[in-house]
Amino acid sequence: MEEENARLAQAAKRRVVPRDAASLILIDRSGPVPRVLVGRRAAAHRFMPNLYVFPGGRRDPLDHRLATLEPLADDVVTLLARRVPKRRATSLHGLGVTALRELHEETGLVIGRFDPPVPGAAAASIFAPALGKLRYTARAITPPTFPMRFDTRFFTLFTDEVAIDPTAARDSRELEDLRWIGIDDRQSVPLPDITATILDDLAARLSVDPHLSFERGVPFYYTVRGRFVRTML
Predict the structure, then answer these.
(1) Domains in the chain, number
(2) Could you read off the pLDDT of 191-203 as tens digits, one per residue?
């Protein structure tokens, strides 16, 4: 316990700045209960090892420069710009790119176009994501006591809208034991608290907005002086 308190105190002293990240909640609504795709973070990860999370990761510096087949919907861009400095607004579409790039890297699923690598070709010419069906669903900033912090935007996408076969997802070194769990399932796998909270809010939203309208406001989760805050963007 003393070691853990010391670690948290040391992390707070460093004032770790959250890094931009994005995650994708892929929803299979073919059955009576919507299912979402999660996978286990490898034990070697420093951040949330052995917990089940949505595909995602930190934004690469070049993500906002990647050419896309479809841009983010205007309503999604408007929501993403809330509580964001104007100087960063021009790179917001890069968060959508991050979500789909990480999905491909961690599960093998492609939303857009992915051409087999060609010797000498730039990465931008290989993957062209389609962002048009992404909904902005939530934003969460890791508490200041964590040694690694992320400012993560969570996007949502229905598998049937982009012709994704739920059985096609494959494990990777970053995300193991991929599985589809019911959106109301909190028991079958260990989930981070924030993941369970986001699923609760998403389930409530689906009950009144089953198609997840693009313009609807989203919850923003963060911590102030040790107090968990949930507000709307």
Answers:
(1) 1
(2) 999 999 999 999 9
